[in-house]
Specification:
The complex is a heterodimer. Chain A is α+β, with helices and mostly antiparallel strands. Chain A has helices at 5-9, 14-19, 42-45, 61-79, 119-130, 148-162, 185-200, 252-264, 348-354, 395-409, 474-486, 502-515, 532-571, 577-588, 598-607, 615-624, 633-647, and strands spanning 29-39, 84-90, 108-115, 166-175, 203-209, 269-279, 282-289, 301-304, 311-312, 314-321, 334-339, 342-345, 361-369, 383-387, 392-393, 411-418, 426-433, 436-437, 444-446, 449-454. Chain A contains 17 helices and 20 strands. In chain A, the strands form 5 sheets. Chain A has a 7-stranded mixed beta barrel. Chain A has a 5-stranded mixed sheet with strand order 3-2-1-4-5, with helices on both faces. In chain A, a hairpin with a 7-residue loop joins β16 (411-418) and β17 (426-433). The chains are: A alpha+beta, B alpha+beta. Chains A and B meet through α1, α4, α5, α6 and α7 of A and α1, β7, β8, β9 and α7 of B. β11 (334-339) of chain A pairs antiparallel with β9 of chain B. Chain A: Belongs to the ku70 family. Chain A: One of its GO terms (biological process) is stalled replication fork localization to nuclear periphery. Chain A: InterPro entries: DNA_bd_Ku70/Ku80, Ku70, Ku70_bridge/pillars_dom_sf, KU70_core_dom, Ku_C, Ku_N, SAP_dom, SAP_dom_sf.
């Protein structure tokens, strides 16, 4: 009935269910646990030589690593609030394992226990990073060498006990030492055995080496023995990351952050090994990924304040029959559709069959020119697909051949697609993408591959409202062209990375301030607000010219229209007086975009006869001034009078 | 849409309608009623009070109508007065629609009755008025031409749309010609066709109307304004010269969701006696139940718990009333008082303003976050229309899009939109789609498709994952052969049109559910009908197209050499190959004295169990490993304070189960899990462990059946039985 963990909670909210990834191993939690293992040593703590260059590195490798971990922690609280993170320092003089245990691993210090971070963790790490407040005196290297075997087993125990049954567990090692045991074979071997344990525990080790100047990080000395190819990753992916170092205008911190950010989110497939039928009887397999996913603030929760510490109350849902308030067992519940006030009911088998449009598939039904996919044909975000060799050997080369052909010939595939069992079928366009890079950072922000782009159904298309078409003149368009040319975004492209979601950031900024007892900030950063001053500086003149030309063109247009109307009026019976009055007042004030110009409005307000206008006219006037135009007539009049007082 | 409607159906119930004709196994009446019921039930479903339906039977045994006194109005019965339709009315109607014993009754007279009914209800008000006559035309009709003309005029005057649908009436366009028609029927067809023609109505054969039932009907929605105000460039507050155009924004696309199903349960008073017998009863009725009937809706009730180390389960219930609202920051609960609850909401003012412009070819549509909007100039505002037009034309000429920030109302979250120009003969607008923010794009890394980079960092251009020139060429030929840009048929039957255009693709789940629900309402005792072919039209490539591309596909298949991985080989024994990047043989290391493990360490259970199984030489070792790990699992559970160790136990069980499926020893797992279930439910492992059993069931860690492992002796039915209780 209740509290059956994650498995049952999905039930009910279908929309949400759609968002969740498909479980490959359904007994595992779809959660991620990320443990940083950061080496503390003299070389890691060495500060870069002082420099007058403002952009020069000021961080030691250790402090860059900790800062990076702090950034990741803050990001994860926003992007994956249910996932865990921890920090393990190694090579420290001090030793500390999880609180409740005496069992220690020499020179391993659990600085932030692996858990969903809380305010205390964030604050503690922040003071270490920003204020150098090392209250626990941990940043002191030990005199004797740390043995990697201990570090790895320590991590093993942390994962085993703190993140049991997690679908994704990762260990990020940050170090500048490519030979921790100085070539001691026995020690290397015991570390390799412990690394194999981690592998068998499904923990993925990622190494983030740090180098200085012309040093090389030699993987073959030791680290190649403990790092495995990621079994979940695509076949040919090497697990080596470029070493982070400062230079080329990048600080060490920058280099590290961009290296780690690329891997920070665990790669979860939205669907796995979906058959991709390129033609009848010709299949390969692909995996799907939700690369585009709307990030929203976590929902509100209920807090219990009567205890010593504020606690989040966990809710358990049970189902009650509305007639008797008795608890209902899942097996007794039937699904019914409301139909004209009645319930139309289907047996569970029938209900199931209604949703059955076949097994998961991407079935190509043809190819089209790219130009036939119109801009307006958008209904939902796209899913990224990438080949997988798991079910069909040769998938990758076939996928690549198709990808190249579509790119080259500017074509798209059209396919019938069912993402999961009992999922709703859609028609999708298969669009190829080439990799897109962010300037100044390594790696791409959008990968090369293909996308399943949902095409709207006939049912999803709405009729446009009725409009009268008034065309621009060539002269006016030319004036506008000047403005459009002036105000291009950098490299004439939209780069999402430049625009953090202001509402989301503000939400967490305030929460963070409240949680950490900081001062609540005054104004949000909002990169989406246009740079008005720059716009006016660059285009103020052009806009003015454009307005002038528009007024002239409009004058001619009105004249033309009047002549035409008079001609019509001669034949037709005269229009009702009221209607023509509106048109007249409108003609007199073509440019303010409202049915009554400000002067006329002022006059009316003074005379107090706004209420003589019709509701429709009032609404129109309000709308023209960007005001709310809903409500009773008296409200509309009030609102307009108020506006007049404030603005005229 | 919200228009008022008055529709009268006139149904011929004469005895001849009870017969089957022209090879049909369904009586003419049942067949024709498919159309009428479908239309009537659609009205019921809409449950609009302003949609009125009346039903008249012609050639009924009785005569019940307001004009019964007059001549020529016998054997006509008003079966349902003109009024709003509901299920009860429909059910009572269903019992009345039966072939009668008579063959007399003038269907044109019935039209007169219908006109009267409509006039009485609608008076001079604004209504959509319809009369739909369904008949087989076998009964004599008063052929007086003047009379017919009068009636046609009356229909016109009253603004009624008359539709005559005849059983097997001839229709050359639809392709029906009944050869052995009776003389009476031929005459009637001619008369009715005249009447419909003169009154400006429709005349057709019922087969066509029935065929059209499968074509999904699109729901009309009123244009919805999502923004109404100025579109600006620059800020009028900063500089009064800023550009400002009064615009209105509407939806262009909006997802139509399938009708939702509600959770219901049999009411308690209905459940008296044996509940299962009752349920079966309802099943047999193939239920349509009034909302006040046997079903009650199901509501969700929530109980709240917090951690409390002092209580036995580690958790205690708390009253909802003593909880405060808040948000989670990591695992910290941040409580925000009611009065300050908006503190985390960003303060915004309504606006729609351009941020900048980009090139059209530098944007990929896969960044789109959702559905399309449409922006036009404010109604009746020529100035705004002309100004907006200049922006639209400029974007078009410069092949650019505009990026704009929109806040639809004060206090709403800002959203970035991409605006694109659209110019048609007499319509112009800006289309827009929502753009992703930085947080909405996940950074996932994938190896490049067009090259292979080895571990050592070398770049390969020839590899089994890279297509050969041959493959590239055959793929290209196949894609070109399968082109459907102009595969659609035009009016002349030529393939010049786009195939599968948006307006021809209907949302299958929406119409499937509408179809079966209507069907169930009309034919409560029949099984669910099959999916109409029109909904599956684009589920497969067109047969002619496939035929055309056949040889290209055959070449492609040959060159591609794709091989399916046999299901068995997946995962099985692949672990032998697992080595770190250096290729170090760790398994061999594990055999050396200093690393050798004989007994599984409970603290390192998963890895050591896997290694023991991997390196096992004989079945005895498997058995031993299973025994040891089983013991560890039971110990974990016994030691668990509350549920703290449950996840660990589940993880180990999952690994155990997977391993034993891989090495084809499901029997070991099955006996383990049977034994564990018994112990969990008996409370032998440190107390009440039913909660864990729920979790085991939820994680599907029960018996391994034959579908999962060929060598299992357990059937799927036994598994289902095992999960019960």
């Amino acid at each position: 009935m209740s509290g059956r963990g994650d498995y049952e909670q999905r039930d009910g909210d279908e929309e949400e269910e759609e968002e969740e990834g498909l479980d490959e191993h359904d007994y595992k939690h779809q959660k991620d646990a990320l443990l940083f293992a950061i080496e503390v040593s003299d070389s890691m703590m060495k500060k870069p030589p002082p420099s007058d260059d403002k952009k020069a590195d000021k961080d030691s490798a250790l402090s860059a690593a900790l800062k990076c971990a702090y950034q990741v922690m803050q990001q994860r609280i926003i992007s994956s609030p249910k996932d865990m993170m921890g920090i393990l320092l190694f090579g420290t003089e001090k030793t500390k394992f999880l609180d409740e245990s005496n069992l220690g691993y020499p020179h391993c210090y659990v600085y932030t226990p692996l858990d969903v971070p809380d305010a205390v963790d964030v604050k503690k790490l922040r003071s270490l990073v920003e204020d150098d407040e090392d209250s626990e005196e941990v940043l002191k290297p030990s005199a004797e060498k740390v043995n990697l075997k201990d570090v790895l087993f320590c991590a093993n125990q942390i994962f085993t006990t703190k993140a049991p049954n997690f679908g994704s567990r990762r260990l990020f090692i940050i170090t500048d030492n490519d030979d921790p045991h100085s070539g001691n074979k026995k020690e290397n071997e015991s570390a390799a055995v412990r690394a194999k344990d981690l592998y068998d525990l499904s923990v993925i080790i990622d190494l983030y080496p740090i180098t200085r100047e012309d040093e090389k990080f030699d993987f073959t000395k030791f680290y190649d023995d403990i790092i495995y190819r990621n079994p979940a990753a695509e076949v040919t992916q090497p697990n080596r990351v470029n070493s982070s170092k400062s230079g080329d205008g990048l600080t060490l911190l920058h280099a590290l952050v961009s290296n780690i950010n690329g891997k920070q989110t665990p790669k979860r497939a939205y669907f796995s090994n979906c058959p991709f039928e390129i033609g009848p009887g010709f299949q390969i397999s692909v995996k799907g990924y939700n690369i585009i996913q709307k990030q929203v603030p976590a929902r509100t929760c209920y807090v219990w304040l009567d205890g010593e510490k504020a606690q989040i109350a966990v809710s358990e849902t049970s189902r009650l029959a509305s007639d008797s308030a008795r608890t209902v067992e899942t097996g007794d519940i039937k699904k019914a559709y409301k139909f004209g006030g009645e319930y139309v009911y289907f047996s569970p088998e029938e209900q199931k069959s209604l949703k059955d449009f076949g097994n998961p598939i991407i079935r190509v039904i043809g190819f089209k020119d790219r130009s036939l996919l119109k801009f307006w044909m958008s209904i939902d975000k796209s899913i990224f697909i990438y080949p997988s060799e798991e079910h069909y050997i040769g998938s990758t080369r076939v996928f690549t051949a198709l990808w190249q052909k579509l790119l080259k010939s500017k074509k798209i595939g059209i396919a019938w697609h069912i993402a999961r069992k009992n999922g709703n079928p859609k028609l999708v366009a298969i669009i190829p993408s080439s990799a897109q890079k962010n300037e100044g950072t390594p790696g791409e922000y959008l990968p090369a591959g293909m996308w399943l782009f949902p095409i709207p159904f006939a049912d999803d298309v709405r009729e446009p409202p009725e409009t009268t078409c008034v065309r621009t003149t060539d002269e006016l368009t030319d004036k506008m062209n000047l403005i459009v040319r002036q105000l291009q975004l950098p490299s004439a492209t939209y780069n999402p990375a430049k625009y953090p979601n202001p509402a989301l950031q503000w939400h967490y900024k305030i929460l963070q301030a409240l949680a950490l007892d900081d001062e609540v900030p005054e104004t949000p950063d909002d990169a989406t607000v246009p740079k008005y001053k720059a716009i006016h500086k660059r285009c103020g003149g052009y806009i003015e010219e454009w307005s002038k030309v528009a007024d002239e063109a409009l004058g001619r247009h009105e004249e033309h229209k009047c002549i035409k109307r008079e001609a019509e009026d001669d034949d037709d019976e005269p229009r009702p007086a009221k209607k023509s009055r509106i048109t007249v007042s409108k003609n007199a004030n073509g440019d303010s975009g409202s049915a009554l110009n400000d002067a006329a409005l002022k006059k009316r307000i003074k005379a107090g006869d706004l209420s003589k206008l019709k509701v429709a006219e009032l609404k129109h006037i309000l709308a023209g001034r960007g005001l709310d135009n809903k409500g009773l007539k008296a409200d509309l009049v009030d609102r307009l009078e108020q506006w007049g007082e404030d603005n005229l | 849409m919200a228009d008022k409607e008055a529709t009268v159906y006139i149904v011929d119930l004469g005895s001849s309608m009870g017969d089957c004709h022209n090879g049909r196994t369904e009586s003419d009446l049942d067949w024709s009623m498919r159309y009428a019921w479908d239309k009537i039930s659609a009205t019921v479903a809409a449950s609009r009070k302003t949609w009125n339906i009346g039903v008249i039977g012609v050639r009924t045994d009785e005569t019940v109508n307001p004009l019964a006194e007059d001549d020529g109005y016998n054997n006509i019965s008003v079966l349902q007065e003109l009024g709003p339709m509901n299920m009860t009315a429909m059910e009572s109607l269903q019992s009345k629609i039966k072939p009668s014993g008579t063959s007399c009754g003038d269907s044109v007279s019935a039209i007169v009755v219908a006109i009267q009914m409509i006039e009485k209800l609608t008076k001079k008000l604004k209504y959509k008025r319809n009369i739909i006559l369904i008949t087989d035309g076998e009964a004599p009709v008063d052929p007086d031409d003047d009379n017919l003309n009068d009636i046609a005029d009356k229909i016109k005057d009253t603004q009624i749309q008359l539709t005559v649908l005849g059983v097997d009436f001839d229709d050359s366009e639809f392709g029906i010609k009944e050869e052995d028609k009776t003389a009476q029927k031929a005459t009637n067809e001619r008369l009715l066709r005249q009447l419909a023609g003169r009154s400006g109505g429709n005349f057709g054969t019922i087969a066509e109307a029935i065929a059209e039932l499968d074509i999904p009907r699109l729901k009309q929605t009123r244009p919805f304004k999502s923004y109404d105000g100025p579109l600006t460039l620059g800020d009028p507050q900063v500089d009064p010269r800023a550009m400002s155009i009064s615009v209105e924004r509407y939806f262009k696309t909006h997802k139509q969701a399938p009708p939702p199903a509600s959770n219901v349960i049999l009411k308690t008073d209905h459940a008296s006696g044996s509940q299962s017998a009752q349920t079966r009863d309802v099943d047999r009725m193939q239920g349509v139940e009034p909302t006040g009937g046997a079903f009650a809706s199901v509501k969700n009730a929530r109980a709240y718990k917090v951690n409390d180390p002092d209580t036995p389960g580690g958790k205690k219930d708390v009253e909802f009333d003593c909880l405060a609202k808040g948000y989670q920051y990591g695992s910290t609960a941040v409580h925000i008082s009611e009065s300050e609850f908006n503190i985390t909401k960003i303060e915004t003012a309504k606006c729609f303003t351009i941020v900048g412009f980009i090139h059209q070819d530098k944007y990929g549509p896969f960044l789109n976050m959702g559905s399309t909007g449409l922006t036009v100039a404010q109604k009746l505002n020529d100035a705004a229309a002309m100004k907006l037009s200049s922006l639209i034309h400029s974007l078009h000429e410069l092949e650019s899009y505009a990026v704009a920030r929109i806040v639809t109302k004060d206090g709403k979250e800002p959203q970035l939109l991409l605006l694109a120009p659209y110019i048609d003969v007499d319509f112009e607008c800006l289309y827009d789609i929502p753009l992703p923010f930085a947080e909405d794009v996940r950074s996932y890394h994938f190896p490049p498709l067009d090259k292979v980079i080895t571990v050592a960092g070398a770049t390969l251009t020839k590899h089994r994952h890279l297509p050969t020139q041959d493959l590239i060429e055959t793929m290209s030929e196949y894609v070109d052969a399968m082109d459907i840009s102009t595969f659609g048929l035009d009016d002349e039957g030529q393939r010049t049109q786009e195939y599968a255009p948006v307006e021809d693709v209907y949302c299958p789940p929406v119409h499937r559910i509408n179809q079966v629900v209507r069907h169930r309402v009309i034919y409560a005792d029949q099984p669910v009908p099959p999916i109409p072919p029109i909904l599956l039209k684009y589920a497969q490539p067109n047969r002619n197209l496939v035929e055309k591309a056949r040889s290209a596909l055959e070449d492609l298949i040959e060159v591609a050499e794709v091989k399916q991985v046999p299901p068995k080989a997946k995962g099985k024994r692949q672990r032998d190959a697992i080595k770190p990047i250096s290729g170090l043989d760790v398994d061999a290391l594990l055999q050396t004295p200093e690393n050798k493990r004989t007994k599984i360490d409970p603290n390192n259970a998963v890895p050591e169990f896997k290694q023991m199984v991997d390196n096992a030489e004989d079945i005895k070792t498997f058995e031993e490993a299973t025994k040891q790990i089983g013991h560890i699992i039971r110990q974990l559970i016994t030691d668990s304070l509350g549920d703290v160790n449950y996840d660990r136990a589940i993880e180990v069980m999952g690994v155990l189960r997977e391993s034993l499926i891989n090495i084809e020893e499901p029997g070991f797992y099955n006996s383990f899990i049977k034994d564990l279930k018994k112990r969990l439910l008996s409370g032998e492992l440190g107390g009440d462990r039913r909660e864990l059993w729920w979790q085991v069931k939820g994680a599907k860690l029960g018996l391994i059946d034959q579908n999962m492992s060929d060598v299992s002796k357990v059937t799927p039915e036994e598994v289902a039985e095992f999960y019960k209780k």
